[in-house]
Amino acid sequence: MDFSLLPEAMLLTVEITLAAMGIGMVLGVLVVVARRSRFRVLRAVAVVWTDVVRGVPPLVWLMLVFLGIGLFTALGTAIIVFGLVASAYCAEIYRSGLEAVPRGQTEALAALAVPARTGQLRVVAPQAAVIAAPAVLSYAIGLVKDSSLASVIGVAELTFVANRAANRTGDGITPFVTVGVLYLLFSLLLAVAGKLGTQRLEGRWRTR
Amino acid sequence: MEATRPQLAVKDLSKSFGDHTVLSHLDLHLDRGEVVALIGPSGGGKSTLLRCLNQLELPTSGQVELDGQELVAYRGGRAVASSPKALQKIRRQVGMVFQQFNLFANMTAEQNIVFAQRAALGTSKDEAHARARALLDRVGLAHKAGSHPAQLSGGQQQRVAIARSLALDPAVMLFDEPTSAIDPEMRSEVLAVMRELAEGGMTMLVSTHEMGFAKQASDRTVFLCDGGILEQGPSRQLLDEPQHDRTRQFLRALAEA
Amino acid sequence: MSTLVSWLPDLLEGLRHSLWLTFVSLLLGLPLGLVLGYVAELTPSRPVRWLLVALIELARGLPALVVLYLVYYGLPSVSIVLSSFWSVILAFTVSNAGYVSEIVRGALRGIPAGQLEACRALGIGRTRTFLSVIAPQALRISTPSLISYAAIVFQSTSLAVAVAEPELLSAAYNIGSITFEYVQVFVLAGALYAVVVVAASRLAGWLSARTAY
Q1: Which residue in the set C63, C173, C194 is minimally distant from A145, CB to CB?
Q2: C–B contact (≥3 CB pairs within 8 Å)?
Q3: Pairwise CA distance, residues C138 & B133, whole Å
Q4: CA-based R_g, chain B, Å
Q5: Is C91 at the interface with chain A, CB within 8 A?
Q6: Fewer CB within a 10 Å sphere, N or C end of chain A?
Q7: pLDDT of residue A208
Q8: Which domain covers residue A101, as residue numbers?
Q9: Domain C2-211 belongs to what topology?
Q10: How many Cβ atoms from other residues are within 10 Å of residue C149's Cβ?
Q11: Which of A114, A115, A205 sits opposite B105 (nearest CB)?
C-alpha cells in the first residue's frame, strides 16, 4: 500500500475524535443541566435527546446528515454527528458522576447555608468531574474506533485509506493491520494523556 | 426578663416517614448557653430531631422556635420548605456537625472554612482567611491548614468541621453523634474541643453515646426513645440515678459494651 | 405518507435480518466471552491471565469496521473465503468478546470474596461452587449490562452495510438510492433502531434498579 497517505489520514482520524469529543464534553454539560433542571419541559427534552441520539446507530446518523440533509462536507458531518452523539453519552456520564457525590457533601452545603448554585459549582461539580473522568476517557477511546465509520461517507481517514488500498492492490491484510496498529497507538496515547490529566484534576484530594 | 424565654424551643414536634413514626409530639427547650446531651438507642429519633431543627428534614407537625421566631412554615396544614432566603437565615444561626464530618473533599481544611464564610456570609477574602486560621488554631490544627480531608484522621476532620461550623458564628450548635465515626483513641481530641465550646457559653444540643461527655460537660441529659422523651434531668442525676427501667437498661447495656 | 408505508416491508425485512445477526452474534459471542472472562479472572496462572487480557484488549482496541474489513477482504488472501454474513458474525464475535468478558470479570469481582471462602470452608467442590453459588450471583449482577450489551451489538449490526449485508441500514440505503428521499427513509430506519435500543435500555435500567441490594 501507499504509506505516504497515512499521515494525512491519521490527522483526520485525530481531528474527528478530538473535535467531536470537545463538542460532546461542552454540549454534555448543557444537556445534564437541562436534565436536572427544575422545569419539567427541559428535563423531558433532555431525556428524549439522550434516548434518540443514543438509540440510533451513529452510522445511520452519518448517512442521514450527509445524504439526507446534505448541508455539510463529509468531514463536517462526521464531526457534528459524533459531537452530538458524544454530548448525549457525556451527559449520562456526568449525571452518574453527580449522583455519585456523597450525599453528606450536599447536606453539609445545606447546613452551612451555602446557596444552592454556589454549592453545585464549587463542591459538587468538581467532585463529580473527578468521578466521571475515567468514564469520559474511555468514551473518548471508544470514539477513536467509532471515527472509522466516517470512512463510509467518504472521509479519507485511516479506514478509508486502508479500504481503498485493499481494493486497488488486492492485498486485504497489510492495509488493515497497519491502520489497526495506528488506531491502537492513538488509543494508547489518549489513555496515557487522559490518565495524567485525570490525576492532575484529582490533585491531592483522594490520597489514601 | 429576656433570659426566661428559651433560646430554642421544640413544640409538639412529630415526624413520620410514610407509615413509620420517628418522632411523636416532642417538646424540648434549650436556654441560652445550655448544653444538652441527647442519648438513647439508635433509631430512637435523635438524628431526625436534630435534622428537623435546621430543616434538613421538614417535620410532619409541630413547631421549632429560635429566639421566639417560628421557623417552620405551614401551608394547608402541611409543613412547607422555607424560602431559600429564610432557610439560609435559619442555617446560619443553627450550626450542625455531622457524624461523617462531611468536609468538602475537594478543598483543604482552610479552604473549607473560607468557602463556608464567603458563600454563606459574603465575608471578604482576607477576613475569611484570618478567621479560618484563628479557628484552626483554636481547634489545634493550625499546622493542617493546607491538608485535604483525605489526609486527615477522623478526629482531625471532625475538629475542622467544628471550626467550619463555628465560622458562621451560629447561635446554636447541633452535634449529630460527632464521635461515633472516629477511632476510640482519637475521640478525646474532639470531645475536648466540644467541652471548651460548652464552657465558652455556646448553646449546644449533642446527640451522643459518650456518657463521660454527657456527665461532665452537659447541663442536662435527655433520654430519647421510641420517638419521645422518656426522661430528662440534670446530667449527673439522670445518668447516676435514672428513674425508668428502660433508661437503666440502656445505660447498663452501654456500660457493658 | 403512503410511500413511507410502501417502504415498510423492505425495512422490516432489514430489521428482521439485523435482529438475526444480533442473535447469532450473541449466541457465539456470549459463551466465548464468558469463558474468556471467567478464565482471565480466576486462573491462577499469571502468564495465561496476561495473555488473555492482552488479547481481549487488542480485539477491543480495534474498530469493529477494521476487523470486519480484515475478515472480509483479508481472509481470502489466506484462502479463507467467508460469506458477508459469516464475515459480519466473525468480526463482531472477535471485537465484542472483550466486552462480554469485561462484563463477566466485573460481575465475578462483584461477588464478595467471602462467598468463595465460605464454600471452601464448607468443603463444597469447585463445580458445585461455580454452578450453585458463583454463576447465579454473577448472572444477577450482570444481566442489566448484558442487555445493554445486546443493544450495542444490535446497533453495531448497521456496520454490515459496509459489506452489503442486507440488514436494516442497507435496506434503507437501497430505498434511498432509488427514491433519493434519504431523509425520510433514514429517519424511519433510525426510529426502528431507536425503538429497539431504548426498549432494551429501559429494561436494563429497570432490572438493575430491581436487583440492586
Answers
A1: C63
A2: no
A3: 52
A4: 18
A5: no
A6: C
A7: 38
A8: 3-206
A9: MetI-like fold (1.10.3720)
A10: 22
A11: A205
Residue A183: pLDDT band with limits 50, 70, 90: very high
* Contact flag A163-C69 (C-beta cutoff 8 Å): yes
* Predicted ipTM of the assembly: 0.92
Looking at residue B80, what DSSP letter applies? E
What are the cell numbers at A205?
Answer: 484530594
Tell which residue, A145, A178, A159, A147, has the closest CA to residue A75: A147
- Average pLDDT of chain C is 87
- Check: CB of residue B135 under 8 Å from CB of residue B114: no
| Shortest Cα–Cα distance, A118 to chain C (Å) | 31
Yes or no: say if A151 and A160 are a contact pair by the CB < 8 Å rule: yes
Q: Does A106 touch chain C (CB under 8 A)?
A: no
The H or E element that residue C211 is part of is helix C182-211
The Cα–Cα gap between A178 and A155 comes to: 18
Q: What is the pLDDT of residue B1?
A: 45
Beta bridge partners, C23, equal none
Identify all chain A residues contacting B145, using CB atoms and an 8 Å cutoff: none
User: B2 to each of A112, B5, B32, B33, how far by Cα in Å?
Assistant: 28, 6, 10, 13
Strands of B203-207's sheet in order across: B94-97, B172-176, B203-207, B35-39, B220-225, B228-234
The C-alpha of A60 sits at a distance from chain C's nearest C-alpha, in angstroms, of: 6
User: Are A98 and A128 within 8 A, CB to CB?
Assistant: yes
What Rg do the C-alpha atoms of chain A give, in angstroms?
Answer: 20
Q: Residues B26, A104, A133, CA angle at the centre, nearest 5°?
A: 160
Beta-strand pair B203-207/B35-39: parallel
| Chain B CB within 8 Å of residue A200 CB | no
Contact A166 C66 (CB under 8 A): no
| pLDDT bucket at C10, cuts 50 / 70 / 90 | very high
- Residues of chain B falling short of pLDDT 50: 1
CATH number at residue A89: 1.10.3720.10
Per-position b or e across C176-193, b if 16+ CB within 10 A of its CB: beeeebbebbbbbbbebb
Domains in chain C: boundaries: 2-211
Residue C40 pLDDT: 78
Q: Is B75 helix (H, G, I), strand (E, B) or coil?
A: strand
Q: How many domains does chain A have?
A: 1
For residue A96, name the pLDDT band (cuts at 50, 70, 90): very high
Of A107, A123, A208, nearest to B150 by CB-CB distance is A208
Summarised one tens digit per residue, pLDDT across range A17-37 is: 999 999 999 999 999 999 999
Give me B122's grid cell. 459574603
Alpha-carbon distance A38 to nearest alpha carbon in chain B (angstroms): 15
Say how many C-beta atoms besides its own lie within 10 A of residue A196's C-beta.
10
Instruction: Look up the pTM and report it.
Output: 0.88
Torsion sign across C-alpha atoms C51, C54, C60, C61 = negative
Instruction: Check CB contact under 8 Å for A67 and C61.
Output: no
